[in-house]
């Protein structure tokens, strides 16, 4: 797997603290393992590959509640790196965010590496829309999860048709080679 740092974006979907607490039991990968794999991938970007953290927020949520709902679970120090940007989305797909789409164009992104929660909703819907828009999609299977094993397996089958699938360790190896 070849990775071009300049044209690739790691997209982390819905890794919010509240999401991690609400979904106490994931069917496939434990929430803490998924969080750890996402942190490993952000760290492996090594400031060379851009990272987008997308958090979902229903429309019309009061400010104080919105702040609590959008608090990210990923490592604070990693989130503060220069190559990391955060975006709000109001639908499951990250591609529905106009701000996010503008970022993709400005940075001339061609390949999307998808991670996050949940595999069968935000991750899959983002993959579908972005593939339809012409992006190359790579999904990191052990950096995603959902609450239902059957839905996870169905989503993975579709994600394999949309693009490539890999694991955190395999992707990190490819990132090291790409440097």
How would you characterize this protein structure?
By secondary structure, this protein is an alpha/beta fold. 44% of the residues lie in helices and 22% in strands. It has a six-stranded parallel sheet. This is Isochorismatase family protein.
How would the blueprint of this fold be written?
Blueprint lengths: L7 E6 L3 H6 L8 H14 L5 E7 L6 H7 L6 H4 L4 E6 L8 H9 L4 E7 L1 H14 L3 E10 L3 H14 L1 E3 L1 H11 L1
Parallel strand pairs: 1-2, 1-4, 2-3, 4-5, 5-6
Helix pairs in contact: 2-8, 6-7
- CATH homologous superfamily placement: Isochorismatase-like
> What multimeric state do the chains show?
single chain
Number of domains: 1
Mean pLDDT, nearest integer? 87
User: Helix coverage percent of residues?
Assistant: 40-55%
- What is the CATH class name? Alpha Beta
Largest sheet features? 6 strands, parallel
Largest sheet, spatial ordering of strands = 3-2-1-4-5-6
CATH architecture: 3-Layer(aba) Sandwich
What is the overall shape? Answer: globular
Low-confidence stretches: none
Query: In terms of structural class, how would the helical and strand content be classed?
Result: alpha/beta
Order of helices and strands: EHHEHHEHEHEHEH
Count of helical stretches: 8
Q: What is the first-to-last residue Cα distance? A: 13 Å
Beta strands, count: 6
Strand content: 15-25%
Rg computed from alpha carbons, rounded to a whole number of angstroms? 15 Å
CATH fold-level assignment: Rossmann fold
Organism: Periweissella cryptocerci
Keywords: Hydrolase
GO molecular function: hydrolase activity
Family: Belongs to the isochorismatase family.
